[in-house]
Write a structure and sequence with these properties.
The protein is an alpha/beta fold and 243 residues long. It has two domains: 15-66, Ribosomal Protein L25, Chain P (Beta Barrel); 76-239, 3-Layer(aba) Sandwich (Alpha/beta knot), CATH 3.40.1280.10. It is 32% helix and 25% strand. Strands 5, 6, 7, 8, 9, 10, 11 and 12 form an eight-stranded parallel β-sheet that branches. Strands 1-4-3-2 form a four-stranded antiparallel β-sheet. The longest helix has 16 residues, at 224-239. The two termini are 29 Å apart.
Length: 243
Amino acid sequence: MDRILLDEKIVVGKELLMKGPPLEALRFQGGRAGNLVTLTDAEGNDFRGRVLRLSGTEAAIFIFDVFPSPTESSLEVILLQALPEKERMELIIQKATELGVLGILPFQSEKSISLMEREAKQKKAHRWQQISIKAVQQSRRARVPLVGECRPFQEVLENLADDGLKVLLWEKGGENLKTVLRRHPVQKIYAMVGPEGGFTEKEVKSAKGKGFIPIKLGQRILRTETAAISFIAILQYELGDLG
């Protein structure tokens, strides 16, 4: 449901009727009459349309433009983000979505705030997926990144698939990011960003045991939201569709 995918020919300047799975995807993206949406045909071409009518069984979309290239990056980035305080998680979700991540997996590490502590101050976690949807609408993406529930650090590690390159930011002893990317020219990356206090030696050891490579982004210490946004932008520039 993260993408409005049609198996029919889409023609600019025409109206199309949408039912079934594409309609459910439209609803997941918060579509309603008057909204602008990005649709994808069976050949992978992306189109821009406006929702004219929406009922319980179908939607009418007017197609008014076609993108010259895909709106989705060929690089699949899964962001694993330690839970930050205040409004930083919302900012990270918004900007990571704009930059084209495929998914966002929040987690609690030893030095991060817990979801219970955060929610006691200001309940926000229930809005995370909606924030991502709004960022998709703003950036004209075709696909909505799925935002997972906040889970313990070790649980997130255990549930990851074995495919792709796994890297985590570690200011104490990481390798050069550019060197690692040139050594592993892949199309799927799990990018892990820690809390303000960084990862513990034990956490880094556990992550390395699951195939993660510690890397550094220069000598300056970045806030977690700055690190996450910069990390994704660099990955998209080096291996994705930025630049």
